[in-house]
Design brief:
424 residues, two-stranded antiparallel sheet, transmembrane helix
Length: 424
């Protein structure tokens, strides 16, 4: 009787053991295939987070390296301000998707009837802005646009106000406001149109207190206006003490933030002794840390399942070979070589695995989505691919071969007479 037929007849005769090994291989393969699909979905989610969350960095005057002077408005730092050319040069570095800058003024704002707007502070904390969507307060999630549009660099007289301020004063997008830096000093009046309204998502206590002028203003008193309008507010006033003090740069791929900052610091035309760079990637770091922990958990589970299962299969095969000592001894006694006997055991296992792997592929396509939801994935994003099937099939066959060889070592070390003498 040839080797293949003996293997086939044995698997049929020992159908209970065959069914046990089949179910075990099916279960293991299904779980591993599902785990690989979930791991891929996790990686895709990580890539998506890198592209959608992004990160930013701030370039601001380093007043610690500059001098101080006094004027009619009090003392002020003589450190050089940022220029528009400098900001645009930084924004041209590869990896930077957008930018904004801050020309801070503290104007009074009046409605169309000339009445001062009602709010909690004497004045307003106003950011002159190029592209307000890239301002640190919006990138960090503390502010959120709820109506209208952001300030853009092609606007000459746009202004954004808080939802709370709009409700207090009955204002809406399209209304006109007038800003005056110092009415008592006859500084220029600048007319501005409300283009957007933002909501304050974070409380004041959530802000990192920088101990500057903004610390005295409630978030509802913050406004953003076009850079051209901000420059118009300070005409004839504060030439020494007012200018663009900081700029924000948005990096689409948060994982490249450090590399982009290094490229920026290599710009030789900027005296970096006068400026400080601060990275702002807390949101990305928090999310990516959670995703990384989940990815590690998934990988660990796949490894644990594989190792434990292979140990279990090896034990089952070892017990099976041990129970077949008499058969093994007879086969060896009639002249069948040890490698042929081991090959028969291997064929028996592979005959069980051949239908188990394809069936596991079919089952995993149904199971993976449900398991993925336990890790926060949507079922449609957890997909078992043919590549996963090929990987599991090849790796599974290699592991099964190793298991058969290990389980057959004790019996194959004995001679036929020794094997038969141990039988009762």
């Amino acid at each position: 009787m040839n080797l293949g037929l003996r293997a086939l007849l044995y698997t049929a005769r020992k159908w209970k053991k065959t069914l046990l090994v089949f179910c075990l291989i099916l279960s293991i393969s299904t779980l591993v295939l599902s785990g690989l699909a979930i791991a891929d979905a996790q990686e895709e989610q990580t890539e998506e987070v890198r592209g959608t969350t992004g990160a930013s960095f701030t370039v601001q005057r380093d007043i610690s390296t500059g001098g101080w002077s006094s004027g009619s408005g009090g003392s002020y730092s003589t450190q050089e301000f940022m220029t528009e050319d400098m900001i645009r040069e930084i924004a041209s570095v590869d990896g930077i998707q957008g930018y904004d800058a801050s020309l801070i003024t503290l104007p009074q704002i009046f409605n169309a009837d000339g009445e001062s707007l009602e709010h909690e502070n004497y004045g307003f904390y106003n950011y002159g802005s190029y592209n307000s969507q890239y301002h640190e307060l919006f990138l960090s999630g503390r502010f959120e646009l709820v109506e209208g549009t952001h300030i853009t660099d092609d606007m000459s007289n746009g202004i954004m106000i808080s939802k709370e301020l709009a409700e207090w004063n009955g204002l809406k997008v399209g209304d006109t406001l007038t800003g005056i830096y110092y009415p008592e000093n006859n500084t220029p009046a600048v007319d501005m149109e409300i283009v957007g309204i933002f909501d304050v998502v974070a409380d004041k206590e959530d802000q990192v207190n920088m101990y500057d002028d903004s610390s005295y203003y409630d978030y509802s008193s913050y406004v953003f206006c076009s850079m051209e309008a901000a420059e118009g507010l300070i005409k004839g006033w504060g030439e020494d003490g007012d200018g663009i003090s900081e700029a924000y740069f948005y990096v689409a791929d948060a994982a490249q933030l450090d590399n982009v900052i290094k490229d920026v610091q290599n710009i030789s035309s900027i005296n970096w002794n006068n400026y400080a760079i601060t990275s702002n990637d807390e949101v990305y770091q928090n999310i990516s840390s959670a995703l990384s922990d989940t990815g590690t958990l998934i990988t660990t589970l796949i490894i644990v399942i594989t190792v434990v299962s292979m140990v279990l299969i090896t034990l089952i095969l070892f017990m099976s070979v041990r129970s077949r000592k008499r058969e093994t001894g007879i086969l060896l006694a009639v002249g069948i070589a040890k490698p042929a006997v081991v090959l028969q055991y291997l064929l028996e296992t592979l005959l069980i695995a051949v239908p188990a792997f394809p069936l596991a592929y079919i089952c995993s396509r149904q199971v993976a989505g449900a398991l993925g939801t336990l890790f926060g994935k949507t079922a449609e994003n957890v997909i078992v691919t043919p590549e996963h099937f090929m990987l599991v099939t090849i790796a599974g066959c290699i592991l099964l071969i190793m298991a058969v060889l290990l389980s057959g070592i004790p019996a194959m070390r004995l001679k036929p007479r020794q094997i038969l003498s141990q039988m009762e």
